Amino acid sequence: MHPLKLPEYNTKVRDEEIFCLVRKKWVALTPEEWVRQNFLNLLIEHLNYPKGMIKLEQSIQYFKNLKRSDITILDSEGGVFLLVECKSYKTKLSEQTVLQLSQYNKILDSKYLAMTNGLKHFIWQKGEAGFEQISSFPSFS
Prior knowledge:
By secondary structure, the chain is of the alpha+beta class. It has helices at about 30-45, 95-110, and strands at about 15, 15-20, 25-30, 55-60, 65-75, 80-85, 110-115, 120-125, 130-135.
């Protein structure tokens, strides 16, 4: 698969599948899933996010539409700590990606927001005046 700007790790890949770090099962290996698994490796192995606090493809009711967030990290009280939108490394991150993330966050109310295509990563922290971009991923607390 395509090299990313994320820490390397020994992915388990077979045929057209990749082993999911969180779901602990084989899933279809798409370019977006490649980014998601590599990003999960960053969160779990390098930033010490607990696997038990990570939800993948969480269903969200947005008006009459059912949406799914890529990665949702819960805090110790069950609120959302970090909401991550993953795109394929072939996809340019755009205002549309920010809008999608914002729509999900209207429902989930996360402390941090992030988006990545594996090559570029953006993260924002909720402050008193709204979300402000920050330069590094928060430690899980």
